[in-house]
Design goal:
Layout (H helix, E strand, L loop, with lengths): L1 E6 L2 E4 L4 E9 L1 H8 L3 E6 L6 E6 L5 E3 L7 E6 L4 E6 L8 E7 L3 E2 L3 E6 L1
Parallel strand pairs: 2-11
Antiparallel strand pairs: 1-3, 3-8, 4-5, 4-9, 5-6, 7-8, 9-10, 9-11
């Protein structure tokens, strides 16, 4: 089994920044598999479907939702089994619970990001 724990959420004013972290732990074999595969950040706002925000492959290549391009940066530290999301120029519409995933099987419990006008 693998556990993913997100942290770094909070309340920030529009235009501000936050850095989310997602720490993976558990089975050594599964952590090795995760390091060789895509990880992603998703978010879900009240009344809306969960959406993919950004993903990063094992080779470091990244993809972003159009709504966050040029404002968010996803990165990972394989040695620390940690995924990051640097968020800047935050907007009220970024308010959501942010989740990380690994292998599209394992999910964290989510961390709340609230952006005030």
């Amino acid at each position: 089994q693998v556990q993913l724990v997100e942290s770094g959420g909070g309340l920030v004013q529009a235009g501000g920044s936050l850095r989310l972290s997602c720490q993976a732990s558990g089975s050594i074999l599964l952590l090795h598999a995760i390091r060789r595969n895509v990880m992603g950040w998703h978010r879900q706002a009240p009344g809306k479907q969960r959406e993919l925000v950004a993903s990063i492959a094992s080779d470091g290549s990244t993809n972003y939702a159009d709504s966050v391009k040029d404002r968010f940066i996803i990165s990972r530290d394989k040695d620390k089994n940690t995924l990051y999301l640097e968020m800047s120029s935050l907007k009220p519409e970024d308010t959501a619970v942010y989740y990380c995933d690994a292998l599209r099987i394992y999910w964290g419990q989510g961390t709340q990001v609230t952006v005030s006008p």
